[in-house]
Amino acid sequence: MKCPFCEIPEIRKRKIIENELASAFLTNIPITIGHGLVVPKRCVPRFEDLSAQEIKAILDLGEMIKKALAKAYGAEGFNVAYNENEAAGQSVHHFHLHIVPRKENDSGIYQYDPRKFIYRPGNREVSEESELGAVASEIRKYV
Q1: What is the rounded distance in angstroms from the CA atom of residue 104 to the CA atom of residue 91?
Q2: Is-above-0.90 flag for pTM?
Q3: Residues noted as catalytic
Q4: Any residues with CB less than 8 A from the CB of 111 and at least 6 apart, and which?
Q5: Phi, psi at residue 16, to the nearest 5°?
Q6: What is the pLDDT, as a whole number, of residue 25?
Q7: CB atoms within 10 A of CB 74
Q8: Full DSSP string of 50-75
Q9: DSSP result, the chain
Q10: CA–CA separation, 3 vs 139, rounded Å?
């Protein structure tokens, strides 16, 4: 099975930042504007498959993105989560950490069922690649 995070060229246009071991980019089905994913460059499905260095690299990028989203879009809080294995709603078998910027009264999902919140086909609208590129560009200004 092909990994969309490793093989879809459009993701490069959505990239916000990367380091030696991890990369961060916008999801094409955001809960709120700026909803990003942080992934290891090595394709592994579960958190426990990551090395200590990869975990640090992922968390470092996550913190950088949170700060950038606060500056770029006025994020007041964040949902930070991952789904592990199909029973928990993992749809792409490449570990990915969701960084979802939140504001008071935003239009994002509030009833927290992780399997619905993070991903279920048809649960959220697909964003245009051009819009995602513009949002990624805006966030990059603050990283």
Answers
A1: 29
A2: no
A3: 96
A4: 117
A5: -100, -50
A6: 97
A7: 9
A8: S-HHHHHHHHHHHHHHHHHHHHHH--
A9: ---HHHH-THHHHHEEEE-SSEEEEE-SS-SSTT-EEEEESS--SSGGGS-HHHHHHHHHHHHHHHHHHHHHH---EEEEE---SGGGT--SSS--EEEEEE-TT-SS--S--HHHHT--TTSSPPPPHHHHHHHHHHHHTT-
A10: 25
Distances from the Cα of 80 to the Cαs of 9, 18, 37, 77, 118, in angstroms?
25, 18, 10, 10, 10
Q: Which domains does the chain have, with CATH numbers?
A: 4-140 (3.30.428.10)
Residue-by-residue pLDDT tens, the chain, 143 positions: 689 999 988 888 899 999 999 999 999 989 889 999 999 999 999 999 999 999 999 999 999 999 999 999 999 999 999 999 988 888 899 999 999 999 988 876 665 555 455 555 566 677 888 888 899 999 899 88
Q: Rounded distance, CA 21 to CA 63, Å? A: 15
Contact 97, 90 (CB under 8 A): no
Total residue count of the chain as it appears in this document: 143
Instruction: Read off φ and ψ for residue 110, nearest 5 degrees.
Output: -110, -35
